[in-house]
UniProtKB/TrEMBL annotation:
Keyword terms, alphabetized: Signal
Phytase-like domain residues: 489-755
Annotated Choice-of-anchor I domain residues: 341-424
SUPFAM superfamilies linked: YVTN repeat-like/Quinoprotein amine dehydrogenase
Entry keyword Lipid biosynthesis: no
Annotated signal peptide: 1-21
Organism field: Streptomyces chlorus
Pfam families assigned to the protein according to its UniProt record, in alphabetical order: choice_anch_I, Phytase-like
Record's protein name: Esterase-like activity of phytase family protein
């Protein structure tokens, strides 16, 4: 495996992999144009400017823990007021985004004021001074209904309403603003069983269709709604759909709509794995074709805690969700999948032929792996589940934005050549990014998320990104490729240690989120230039018999003698132990906690390990416990001193801070030696805007063992408050600041544990806090 790889080379590998995955092959005639495009984009990127949690925009008096989301969004014509749908809260919300670095809540409009408290907004768009909201009012799957409400942006009063005759999903406005198109899905009941079929199968009538709204200027009285049926009058399938091989053509379920500059409408039939083209002025179906199937190798297909990119899917229907026209000929689809499919990527189609012009293959999912955003818990299903897709032109360059519902990111591609997209960067999002809203007139992109989890403190939000020059803060760490060319899988970086004798190398270790445990080598030299740190090597941890083993490793220390110490946390107190590995990762020693200490611990034990070796070769290992041991004084946690030569433990106390936030606690999550002191991370359990305590403290390093009958409390001193550093990302402030070390270059590094995307946004923040002299007052 490579030990060194520059970030530039990494980017080249990603671009090359993306290009190779496509069915369109670049010709020699385009090489010069590609080179110019790469030069043009070298210093241009989207940078996150703000993340607004939409629960902060809830109505006065509502429980702040009540579910509230931002699913689909639109903006006013000046791009300064953002409107979003909140299906969970049964309302639409308004944000002032005049300042992209400081969005401000403008309140909400409940659908109970427009119809019924159970009405649900499914999509939104803006035409002039009017907000067009499509609303699901269905009583049941077999009795679908809906309406289009027209709301004045000025006073938020409804000025018109139109019956849609079925359950709507998405809405799109034509570029000339003459037409609105609405997908009337009439979705299936996943628990219903049609005659002769299986549970959730099609057909389940009534069939879906499309509604066209003729927007005749500013006179609302002249607006008219007309239907585009996707079946014949007697319910039989349209011949075009039958000829195209559309799944169950008697029950089309339109999902997403998009119009090109010629007022040609493209409609995805997700459950039917098809796409239909409609001439909007005449309302005629002009073409239909299957989205086809795809076989993909080199992906993770088994939910087993291991990021294993050797799996395959074969002849799987794409079942696209969102689609968007790239130009008047080509359009792109996000192939989320539904009941039978999902390609884990996205596709460009040629509308003239219905053929695939390019397909992402395995590259979209591998982007997630490379950036530590792979959701292993979804490996056995649809993986990254690309759901949202948007296209827009910024400064003469056309971009595609593809959102991963399950891995919480948006991938950005240059699609100046529709048949050869080029990956440019990845943007982090909070959970379930669905609404992707380009605002090119202001150089902005808004990403709205549909997942809200108050119990985990990770809330739905609207994130804003601005296109500009410079290196974006994300990603701060990525992985290189292994010997097979696949990216090294990683996540849950809960510990750091410098590598003795290596100026630019650190190590981290995976915890119980993955199995087997792996020691990861991190190259930091590019971080000083604002580029991501690079995971260059993985070492599988083995038990004493040489077999791969899974430890809940929460701390790591690279020994000058060779090998590593791991701090392993147990599900119970007795499961906590120190583990010594040799250079090849084999377990050579296991040190248990003393019984009296282990019996006082629950599931929160070891959280960090470090060591010193004196001139005589005497090795002393220090380990931090996260929380108090039962029977110890309240607010005092233990720092353990283990003398390797004599095999004895002694203990010192550390006084943690207090919290008044319900459900919160304060604990330790790392320990490292800094000269004649021990540095520890003290943190709370809070994240997002609620986060308060993410700090580094130091205590004097005791010169000898503590008395066996006492727990001397060491005096602590604040060295650095990391919370401002975490907040400079303008993202969701991460809870688990868990890794800290001083590198061989004299710099202080810290990292957050992304919990493998479990109850977390998945973003990893790798911080270069400054020199050891600056942080700790010494070189």
């Amino acid at each position: 495996m490579p030990s060194k790889r520059t970030t530039a080379a990494l980017a080249a590998c990603v671009v090359a992999a993306t290009a190779l995955a496509g069915t369109g092959v670049a010709s020699a005639d385009h090489k010069a144009a590609d080179h110019k495009a790469q030069e043009r984009h070298r210093a241009v990127a989207f940078e996150r400017t703000a993340t607004f949690p939409v629960f902060q925009n809830r109505p006065a008096g509502e429980d702040p823990a009540a579910e509230t989301v931002a699913e689909i969004s639109a903006t006013s014509e000046d791009g300064r007021t953002l409107v979003y749908t909140d299906a969970a809260g049964k309302r639409i919300g308004f944000l002032d985004i005049s300042r992209a670095d400081r969005p401000r809540g403008l309140g909400t409009l409940s659908l109970s004021e427009l119809g019924d408290a159970e009405d649900e907004p499914t999509s939104v768009s803006v035409v002039g001074q009017y907000v067009l909201v499509v609303v699901n009012t269905s009583a049941s799957f077999t009795d679908p209904s809906g309406r289009l409400d027209v709301i004045s942006l000025r006073d938020r009063k409804r000025v018109a309403s139109h019956d849609l005759g079925g359950q709507p999903d998405s809405i799109a406005i034509s570029k000339d603003q003459r037409y609105a198109a609405i997908a009337i899905e009439n979705e299936r009941d996943e628990e219903a069983t049609p005659t002769g079929g299986k549970e959730g199968d099609l057909p389940q009538l009534p069939a879906g269709f499309v509604q066209i709204v003729d927007l005749k200027g500013t006179s609302l009285a002249k607006w008219r709604v007309r239907s585009v049926p996707l079946t014949q009058k007697d319910g039989r399938a349209l011949p075009e759909l039958v000829a195209a091989g559309i799944t169950e053509p008697t029950d089309p379920e339109p999902e997403y709509v998009s119009l090109n500059g010629r007022n040609q409408l493209a409609v995805t039939l997700q459950e039917n794995n098809g796409i239909v083209l409609v001439d909007v002025p005449t309302g005629k179906v002009t073409k239909a074709f299957s989205a086809g199937t795809v076989s993909v190798d080199g992906i993770d297909t088994v939910k087993d805690g291991t990021i294993d990119l050797t799996g395959s899917i074969t002849d799987v229907p794409r079942e696209p969700d969102a689609l968007n026209w790239i130009d008047d000929r080509y359009f792109a689809t996000a192939n989320e999948g539904d009941w039978r499919g999902g390609s884990r990527g996205w596709t460009v189609f040629d509308s003239r032929t219905g053929k695939v012009a390019w397909d992402a293959g395995n590259t979209f999912e591998r982007l997630a792996v490379r950036h530590g955003l792979h959701n292993e818990g979804r490996a056995g299903k649809k993986g990254t589940e690309p759901e949202g897709l948007a296209v827009a032109e910024y400064d003469g360059v056309r971009y595609a934005f593809v959102g991963s519902e399950r891995s919480n990111f948006v991938a950005v591609y240059d699609i100046s050549r529709p048949t050869a997209p080029v990956f440019r960067q990845i943007l982090p999002a909070t959970n379930g990014p669905e609404g992707l809203l380009p605002i090119p007139e202001r150089g902005l992109l808004a990403v709205s998320s549909e997942v809200d989890d108050a119990s985990a403190g990770v809330r739905a939000s609207v994130s804003l990104f601005r296109l500009g020059k410079g290196t974006p803060a994300f990603p701060s760490i990525v992985s290189a490729s292994d010997s097979t060319g696949a990216p090294i899988g990683w996540g849950a970086l809960g510990a750091l240690s410098a590598v003795p004798g290596k100026r630019d190398q650190l190590v981290s270790v995976t915890d119980a989120a993955y199995t087997p445990t792996r020691v990861l080598t991190v190259d930091t030299k590019q971080r000083s230039k604002g580029q991501p740190a690079l995971i260059t090597r993985e070492l599988t941890v083995k038990d004493a018999e040489g077999q791969p083993v899974g430890y809940d490793a929460e701390g790591i220390f690279a020994r000058p003698q060779g090998g590593y110490w791991l701090a392993v946390e147990g599900k119970t107190g007795a499961g906590n132990k120190l583990v010594r590995l040799d250079r090849s990762g084999v377990t050579r020693q296991v040190v248990a906690l003393p019984a009296d200490v282990a019996s006082g611990l629950g599931g929160q034990g070891f959280e960090g390990v470090t060591a010193t070796t004196d001139r005589r070769g005497r090795e002393i290992v220090w380990a931090a416990l996260q929380r108090e041991v039962a029977g110890d004084p309240s607010g005092i946690v233990r720092l353990g001193r283990y003398d390797v030569a004599v095999g004895t433990w002694s203990w010192y106390g550390y006084r943690i801070g207090s919290t008044t936030t319900p459900g919160d606690w304060i604990g330790l999550s790392e320990i490292t030696v800094v000269g004649d002191r021990l540095a520890v991370i003290e943190r709370d359990k809070l994240n997002g805007p609620a986060a308060k305590v993410k700090r580094v403290y130091t205590v004097d390093l005791p010169a000898s063992a503590a008395p066996s009958d006492k727990l001397p409390v060491l005096r602590k001193k604040l060295a650095h408050d990391v919370l401002p550093d975490l907040r400079t990302t303008n993202g969701w402030t991460q809870e688990k600041l868990e890794g800290l070390t001083v590198g061989g270059d004299g710099r202080v590094y810290a990292v957050t544990d992304n919990d493998a995307l479990d109850d977390a946004s998945g973003e990893t923040v790798f911080l270069r806090l400054g020199s050891s002299k600056k942080i700790f007052g010494r070189d």
